[in-house]
Design goal:
The structure is a single chain. By secondary structure, this protein is α+β, with helices and mostly antiparallel strands. About 45% of the residues lie in helices and about 10% in strands. It is built from 14 helices and eight strands. The protein has helices at about 20-25, 65-75, 80-90, 95-100, 110-120, 125-140, 155-160, 175-185, 190-195, 200-205, 215-225, 235-245, 255-270, 270-275; strands at about 5, 10, 35, 40-45, 45-55, 55-60, 145, 150. The strands form two sheets. Strands 1-2-6-5-4-3 form a six-stranded antiparallel β-sheet. A two-stranded antiparallel sheet has the order 7-8. A hairpin with a 2-residue loop joins strand 5 and strand 6 (about 55-60). Helix 4 (about 95-100) crosses helix 13 and helix 10 (about 200-205) crosses helix 11 (about 215-225). The N and C termini lie far apart (about 40 Å). The mean pLDDT is about 95. It binds a DNA duplex through helix 6, helix 11 and helix 12.
DNA sequence: CGCCAGGCTTCTA
DNA sequence: TAGAAGCATGGC
């Protein structure tokens, strides 16, 4: 990983081709990033960050080197060789289309608790509304800072009631979020322990939470636990797979299936033949 | 307005 | 064990 400190900023020289801010921060894997005047602002957990692109470089503004190395480096998975990874994906023609559509996507390594809650909210829901719900969740129960609200802790949600969650307007998912928070708080779901489990057992553990089925568990594992072999299949992915990869992914790509999935998901939702198909 | 959305739980046969 | 109904809410 190549970086340099420039004043109070961190510069990632020449990374643009493998880290596009709109591709990565607005492709439906994280819901708390917003762009205004060329600058992306958002939270990961309780950490605030502003980023911008300068030609082929990406700048992390006002970021101590220690914070960069200790947190954002992992969040953006900067030690993964995306150039090489994408070359492997593109040997499969249908994937080459998806990668070509948004080659700057990276799969973020998000916080397990935040990812689990967020993807509980996503079930049978649409991306614009998910954004609103997640934002209200933070505004109502996250720690408030001058820059915005952090993602709520499990403790902040565990003692609430369904009635308390009414202003969140998340519908029938409210009891799911409460069950999740309560399980994490009282130790029935130990996320640190889950992180150490082999994927099949981790999957089973997450599915103990009400409202966490195969799809949500797969998303939590991919986006929150860095399990790149996990492959969430939502309605968009089912369409994309039927159309482009009816025989499934080539076997050698299975360890990074989840990353391939994110290119395909974004392509299915925003690609050219996406709206033509209706 | 009607269909659908990064699905899941529950009911039914 | 498989298949369908019911579910809150709102984007389009």
């Amino acid at each position: 990983m190549d970086y340099l400190a420039r004043g109070s900023d961190i510069l990632l020289p020449g990374i643009g081709g493998d880290l596009s801010l709109p591709d990565t921060l607005d492709c439906g894997q994280a819901f708390r990033w917003r762009e205004a005047d060329g600058r992306w602002r958002g939270f990961a957990g309780a950490r605030y960050l502003e980023l911008s692109a300068e030609g082929p470089d990406v700048v992390l503004h006002d970021t101590p080197e220690e914070t960069f190395l200790g947190f954002w480096r992992d969040y953006f998975d900067l030690d993964r060789d995306y150039a090489s990874l994408k070359r492997a994906l593109c040997r499969c023609a249908p994937l080459a289309c998806a990668v070509g559509h948004a080659p700057g996507i990276r799969v973020l390594r998000q916080d397990p608790w935040e990812a689990l809650c967020t993807f509980i909210v996503t079930q049978n829901n649409n991306v614009p509304r998910i954004r609103g719900i997640v934002e209200r969740l933070c505004g109502l129960w996250g720690e408030q800072t001058p820059r915005g609200a952090a993602f709520p802790t499990p403790q902040a949600l565990a003692d609430l009631t369904e009635a308390d969650l009414a202003p969140l307007r998340c519908g029938y998912r409210a009891p799911y979020l409460l069950d999740c928070a309560r399980r994490v708080c009282d130790g029935r779901l130990d996320l640190a322990a889950v992180a150490a489990l082999p994927t099949p057992q981790a999957r089973e553990a997450l599915r103990g939470v009400r409202g966490v089925g195969p799809k949500v568990a797969e998303c939590a594992l991919l986006f929150g636990f860095g399990r790149t072999e996990c492959f969430p299949m939502d309605v968009w992915m089912k369409r994309a797979m039927a159309q482009h990869l009816p025989d499934g992914l080539p076997e050698p790509l299975r360890p990074v299936a989840g990353i391939a999935q994110q290119y395909l998901f974004h392509y299915a939702r925003t690609g050219k033949d996406a709206r033509a198909a209706g």
